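U., I forgot to send this yesterday:
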Amino acid sequence: MSLQKKIDETVVQAGQLALFYLAQAGFCFKTSGGKRIFIDPYLSDACERLFGFKRMIPAPINADELSADLYLITHHHADHLDPDAMPLIVKKTGTHFIIAPDCVSFFEEHAVSKDRYTVIKEGETITWKELNIRAIYADHGELAPEAIGYLMEVDGIRLYHAGDTAFRPKEIKTSLGVPIDIMIAPINGTYGNMTAEEALRLAVELTPSLVIPCHFWMFLEHVVPGGVGDPATFLREAPKLAPGIHCRVMTPGEHITYSI
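Result:
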C-alpha cells in the first residue's frame, strides 16, 4: 500500500492526531475531521541538482501522488519548499497553502492563484477549517530571515513544528505563549539548526509530552563529527537532559497516533 493511500485510509478518532514522517523535516498530520496537513516534504533530488547534496533516504511518497487538504511551508530553502516537486503539487486544485513570506515569489512565478495560498508572518494566526495555525519565531540566519515555525491547534492538541531554527528558547517560548503537547525539532546541528542536545534543552523549556526529532540523515553534508545530528545521540541523551519527556525517533514512512 502506498503511503498516500495509507494516509487517506487512516481513521483518526476525536481527541487524536495521526503523524506520518516523510524524512528530513517533512510530516503529514491527519485530523479526526479527515483533513490531511503536509508540512515541508522534500520529495525530489533538487538539492543534488542545485548544490550537489545527494539524498540518502528515498522519498516515501511521490510528488505526483501527494494529496493534501492543507500544505504548510516554513521557508524557501529547497529541502522545505521543494522546487522540483512543488510544480506538480500546486496543480492539485483541492490544496490550500500556508506559506512564509519568502515563499511568495515561487507561487507568483508558477502563477498560483492568490486565493489558493495564505502568507503568514511571525506572530500571526490563521483559522482554517477546524485548525488554528500560528507562525512561530525561528532564527535560521541571514539566508532565511523570514523563516518561521508553526503551532497547530486541533481537537485539543497543540503541535509545534520548529521548522529550521537555532537554539533560541526564550524567543520561541515567548512566541508560542501557550503549553504544547508535541514538539518536532531539527537536530542536524549544521546550517544554523539546533543540535540533538539543544533540541532536548528546548523541550525542557517547553515541556511537551512528546518530542520528535527531524532533519537528519538526508544529506551527508548534514552529518557532523561528534554525533550532534545523530538520532541515536538524541535518544541516548534524552533521559539525562529531558527526563520525563517521551522522545520518539520515527522512521521515514512510519506513522503514530497521538491521543490526549
